[in-house]
Amino acid sequence: MALCSIFCPRIPVRFRPKPISPFFSKPMFALSYRVYSSLQPTPSTKDELGSVSIGFLGMGIMGSPMAQNLLKAGCDVTVWNRTKSKCDPLVGLGAKYKSSPEEVTAACDLTFAMLADPESAIDVACGKNGAVSGISSGKGYVDVSTVDAASSILISKQIKDTGALFLEAPVSGSKKPAEDGQLIFLTAGDKLLYEKAAPFLDIMGKSRFYLGDVGNGAAMKLVVNMIMGSMMASFAEGILLSQKVGLDPNVMVEVVSQGAINAPMYSLKGPSMIKSVYPTAFPLKHQQKDMRLALGLAESVSQSTPIAAAANELYKVAKSYGLSDEDFSAVIEALKAARSQQS
C-alpha cells in the first residue's frame, strides 16, 4: 500500500525560504512533522476558516476536545450528540446545536463524525435522521471514527450516492493529544475533500496521511492500534515481572524510557499502572474492539497474528472484571488476577 504523501524533512534555518503563499503562512519548521498531499493554498486565517460551516457529530472523550479546538481557531461549528448535555460546554463556547445528524449535515458544508464503534458510526450516518438524510451534493463528510474497512466503505457509498464527498480519517492518539491538537489523521477517500478538509485537520492534529482508497485509512488505524494494544499487554507483564523478582518497577519504567524500546505511552502510563490507577484516556473496551477488528482484518487476508490474539484475550478478561470504561492500561489487572489464581 503506497503512501500518497509528501514528507517534509527538517531544513536548517539558514536555508529556509521566506513564505511565498498563504499555505506557508506558518513557520517552515512546522512542515517537518506534517504530511501533505498537495501544495495548493488552503484557508488559514480566522475569516477564511469561519467561512466554512463545520458540523461535528459525537461529543465523547475525543470528539469534544476536537470540536473545541475548531471553535478556538475561529471556526463556525455546529454540534450534535445523543446525550444533549454533552454538547452544552461546546454551546457555551459558541457552538450551535442541532437535534439530529440530519440537521447538522443539512446546515453545514463539512461534517466530522467521531463515534465509538462501527455500529454507532453506521447508525449516525445511515440510520433514521442520519447524516445521509441531510447531506447533499457539494458537501463533505469526514468520519474520524475507528471502524473496520467494510463499515467505512458502506458509509462512503451512502454518502456518495447523495452527490456529497466522503473521507475516512481515523485518528492515532488519545484524550491528551486530542486536547492539544496533536492527533495523527489516517485519511482515505475523495482527494478533493482531503484537500478542502486539510486546514481543519491541521487545527486538530499534528500530521495527516493520505492513503488512497476508502478502507486503507481504517486498515492502517487497526494495524496501529493492534500494535499498541500488544505493546501495552507486554508492558504490563514487564511491570509485574519486575515486582515479582524484587525490582523497583518505577526504575524499570525509567530504564525503558531511556532505551531503544521507549514509547511515550510507557512513561505516561507506567507510574499510574504501578499504583493501580487507570485514568481514562482511551477506554479499555475500545482497545479490545480495535483488537477484535484488527484480528478480523488479519483473518480476511490469512495473516497470522498470534501475539495480538493472545493480547486480545487479556483485554477480554479485563472487560469481564468490569474494567471496560477504565483506561486500556487496566489490562494489567487481568494479569494480576491470573497470578493470584496460580498462587
From TrEMBL:
One Pfam family this sequence matches: NAD_binding_11
Sequence ranges assigned to domain 3-hydroxyisobutyrate dehydrogenase-like NAD-binding in this UniProt record: 215-334
Gene Ontology CC entries for this record: chloroplast
GO molecular function per UniProt: glyoxylate reductase (NADPH) activity; NAD binding; NADP binding
Gene3D superfamilies: N-(1-d-carboxylethyl)-l-norvaline Dehydrogenase, domain 2, NAD(P)-binding Rossmann-like Domain
Family annotation (SUPFAM superfamilies): 6-phosphogluconate dehydrogenase C-terminal domain-like, NAD(P)-binding Rossmann-fold domains
Domain 6-phosphogluconate dehydrogenase NADP-binding span(s) in chain numbering: 53-212
Catalysis performed (reactions): 4-hydroxybutanoate + NADP(+) = succinate semialdehyde + NADPH + H(+); glycolate + NADP(+) = glyoxylate + NADPH + H(+)
InterPro entries (UniProt xref): 6-PGluconate_DH-like_C_sf, 6PGD_dom2, 6PGDH_NADP-bd, HIBADH-like_NADP-bd, HIBADH-related, HIBADH-related_NP60_sf, NAD(P)-bd_dom_sf
Keywords (A to Z) from UniProt: NAD, NADP, Oxidoreductase, Stress response
Catalytic residues as annotated in Swiss-Prot or TrEMBL: K221
Classification via PANTHER family: CYTOKINE-LIKE NUCLEAR FACTOR N-PAC (PTHR43580:SF2), OXIDOREDUCTASE GLYR1-RELATED (PTHR43580)
Role, per record: Catalyzes the NADPH-dependent reduction of glyoxylate to glycolate as well as succinic semialdehyde (SSA) to gamma-hydroxybutyrate in vitro. May function in redox homeostasis and play a role in oxidative stress tolerance by detoxifying glyoxylate and SSA generated in glycolate metabolism and GABA metabolism, respectively.
Similarity comment: family membership: Belongs to the HIBADH-related family. NP60 subfamily.
The protein, known as: Glyoxylate/succinic semialdehyde reductase 2, chloroplastic
